[in-house]
Amino acid sequence: MTDSTSPCPAGPARSGSRGAPAARPNLWADYDRALRHHWSGAALRHRRSGRPDRPAGSTFYLDGRFVTDIEGFYCALGEAINGLGGYFGWNLSALDDCLRGRWGALPPFRLIWHHAEVARRRLVPGYDRPASTRRTRGPAITLQDLLAILTEGRVDVDLR
Question: Residue ranges of the Barstar (barnase inhibitor) domain (predicted)?
C-alpha cells in the first residue's frame, strides 16, 4: 500500500496507488540527483501519449527555484511544458527529441524561466558526475549549453 500523501521515489510522476497526478508542483525538489533522474524516467513512463501538442507560439513558465543541477532542469521543464509530473526530456538526446514536437509543445514557443539566477550559479563549467551514472565523468552541462540547445530548437527563452 502506498501513502498518497508522500512522494513515491519509484514513481514520482504519479503518487498514490491509483495513479493520481502528483499533488503539487516541485514535489521532486528535495530529491537528490539520482532520485530526480528517476522522477524524470517515471514521468516518461507515465506520460499521456496521444495528447496533442500545445500549438506553436505558446508560452510556458518554468519555475527555476530548484534548478540546482541538470536533473532539476529536466524535472522543472517537464512540469512547465506538461504540468505536474510532466516529462519533456531527461537527457540531451531526449530533450532534442522533445523539441521536434509530439511531446507536449510544438516549436517555436516561448519559455519564461523564473528564478534563472539559480541556474546561473549552479549550472557552470566544470566536471559533473551524477550519482546515478558513476561510470562516466564528463564536462558539466551549463546554463549556456542549455540555452544554445533550446535556441536551436526554436525556443525563445526569457530569463527572469
Answer: 59-123
